[in-house]
Write a structure and sequence with these properties.
Blueprint lengths: L5 H5 L5 H7 L8 H6 L1 H10 L12 H12 L6 E2 L3 E6 L3 E9 L6 E9 L3 E9 L11 E9 L5 E6 L2 E4 L2
Parallel strand pairs: 5-7
Antiparallel strand pairs: 1-5, 2-3, 3-6, 4-5, 7-8
Helix pairs in contact: 4-5
Length: about 170
């Protein structure tokens, strides 16, 4: 079984209604809050969370996945660093991130994080290998594209923070 990752496997299981119901105690979409309260969250998932009025209990495989994550490395993605470029032609706008991974075996990608009517924000994620890999860090060039008819402002969320790209 692949090592579960917070942003890929755990956070998506918490629905907006779950987040709203637990907001008085902690933020289910925040890695640090979930780590700090993982034992309590698991106990509630095994007993009565979420309540039937808001969707009911998680399937057992979700609870098991959360427990595997909690009892394991509590892995999460890293925010990457890169040089970014925005290029547009008559049909496509492309965001390119180029750089070098922090160590051998890392993978990375650009992912749409949020969007509004006027802007969209992409995040640069790096994922470390489950076990260290020998060798030198590899260079990368990652690209995300969308139709050039989409003229919203573009922001990049990386280890340097969130900055406009255009």
């Amino acid at each position: 079984m692949r090592t579960p990752v917070f942003e890929l496997h755990i956070r998506p299981m918490f629905r907006a209604t779950d987040k709203a119901h637990m907001g008085f105690a902690f933020d289910l979409w925040d890695y640090d809050d979930v780590v700090a309260n993982a034992d309590d969250i698991l106990a509630r998932l095994q007993e009565d969370m979420p309540p039937p009025a808001t969707g009911g209990l998680w399937p057992q495989e979700w609870v098991t996945l959360f427990q595997v994550w909690k009892d394991g490395a509590r892995k999460r993605l890293d925010l990457g660093t890169a040089a970014f470029a925005l290029q547009q032609d008559s049909t496509t706008t492309a965001i390119t991130a180029t750089g070098t991974f922090p160590a051998a075996g890392f993978e990375g990608w650009l992912q749409l994080e949020s969007e509004t009517e006027t802007s969209k924000t992409y995040v640069l994620y790096f994922e470390a290998p489950d076990t260290p890999v020998g060798g030198l860090p590899q260079s990368f060039s990652l690209e995300e594209s969308y139709p050039s008819t989409d003229t919203r402002s573009v922001f990049i969320h990386s280890s340097a923070g969130t900055q406009p790209l255009n």
